[in-house]
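Please go through the protein record below and explain what the tokens say about the fold. Record follows.
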Amino acid sequence: MSAAAEALTALRAAVDLLLAAPDLLDRDDELHTFVIGTQVEQHRLVAALAPAVARWDRLRLWADDGSLSAASRLSVETHTSKAAARCTIRRAKQLQEMPATAAALAEGSLSPEHVDLFGRANRSHRRDRFAHDEETLVDACKPLLFDDATRAVNYWRNRADADGSGDNEATERRNRAACAHLHASETLDGSTVVNGLLDPIAGEIFRNELDRLEHMLYLHDKQMGNERTNAQRRAAALVEMATRSASTPDKARRPKPLFVVHVGDETARRLCELAGGSVLQTDDLRDWVDDALMETFLFDGPRVVLTASQKRTFTGKLRSAIQARDRRCQHPSGCDTSAVRADIDHIVAWTDGGTTDQFNGRALCSTHNRHSEKRDRQAKVLPQQPVNHLAVLRAKCRWVSQRDCEREGDDEGTDSS
């Protein structure tokens, strides 16, 4: 028996053993370990099969029965959709070009979705730059939640395209607003079907208001004992948006910002993202700058905001600063609720002597903050640091020094090219 046949036989035996395993799991901790462990091994299996799948495709072994494509043969014999088969083949090919990603997938540190993420970044005009930076990207993404890894890779793409090599993609991004569309069609029974596509900023504006109204309807349903799904409440929220729009005067003043975007100054000039996490190019903000309301925050490292408050509740600039620092709910479960939609509350309660400052404040979604059984009781107050004029001056000096170093690096790169 060949080594490949032995490996396949061993895999089948292992799967047969796994099929019987759930009946043997009596303890909750064993069940949790089993579920997580098998998912990780599935990821590793993708890495193990990738060289064989890529070779099978390259040798056109799929064509010996007259199949028109590798995806067609794979989908027929594995009883999957062609889309799933194409995904399997695409990942296998990408892993041959991304050795560091393949190694991380094989050890269980990354998932197949990371392969897709890196594959989208590893376009032809970035191929050399990606090969140079792949290990750094992989190491950076290993400890991150997937949404944060997506944000990191998007920033890398922006940086890699800074020399103009990604002009085609930049043009595509600029055309996103022009490609936006919305269809509202009436069915035979008089119902309306809605579907469409919005660019990131327009989508953020729409989702912010939709989520706000949906939450209001949720609170009303909870008070009245109504039972509706989230989708049903969102449909009602969309109608409420239209109703309120019809009753609003044409020149009514906007009551609050439509969306929040975090933008760095010249020192942190690569920072440009919506509060929801979508990374933007600075050109995307061009049409909004004239009406923008600017708030400035000076950070001393990744966690310390040089601002202070003695109030009982987190309001105003302190609240906005903590939102900018935390970005999302800080519950250790990895909740991805945006900080803009979250509560800003004390780690140590005010009634227990907790102070209202950045070190004792954090963003928590309403569920993790207001439901006592879900609240994180093990959270620690951030280490206190001086927040005064001297600290501000020192931070400014560090930022200026970093900016000058980056400028020198950019100039050297330009000279060498």
About this structure: The chain has a mean pLDDT of 80. The CA atoms of residues 123 and 130 lie 9 Å apart. Residues 3-162 form one domain. The first strand starts at residue 181 and ends at 186.
